[in-house]
Prior knowledge:
Layout: H1 2-23, H2 31-35, H3 46-52, H4 58-61, H5 65-73, H6 83-89, H7 112-116, H8 125-133, H9 148-152, H10 167-173
Amino acid sequence: xxxxxxxxxxxxxLVTGIQAQDKVEATFGGVASCKACHLTKKSxxxxxLWKAGPHAKAFETxxxxxxxxxxxxxxxxxxxxxxxxxKCHVTAHGVDAKLxxxxxxxxxxxxxxxxxxxxxxxxxxxxxxxxxxxTTDGATLGLVTPTEKTCAGCHNEENPTHKPFKFEEQVAxxxxxxxxxx
Length: 182
């Protein structure tokens, strides 16, 4: 009888531990966490494409004279420190600091995790290979496949420099697919 009780306790602790682990929120590692695997031509050079694109410069634009002019019309003294601006110009703005990894920096602008979700649960090489192979559903690990709705979170009428957002056109400009395995 004592053995059965010990087994029951062990199973309870094991299951409770697994459930608790599932409830741990994913953390934001920053672009540096993605760069290692998404740098080479073989992987699609997504990091280089991002770095050359507008999202990588999103935070820096808030420091320009033009941004300060737009901000002044909204009553914003410094766009680079205003929640009104940072919510769309910085990955994970407003997220609890405990959910930001050591390599994370706001200065990277709109990084990978702004569109693809906090990466700590899916960033590992084995996990990414399983996701790419279709044996693991990345969504269960927080990996987001961006949609028009994802983009519309920032590319909308609330944006003071808003221009009509044509999703298909804009997505083509920032496309960064993973090459098919040979």
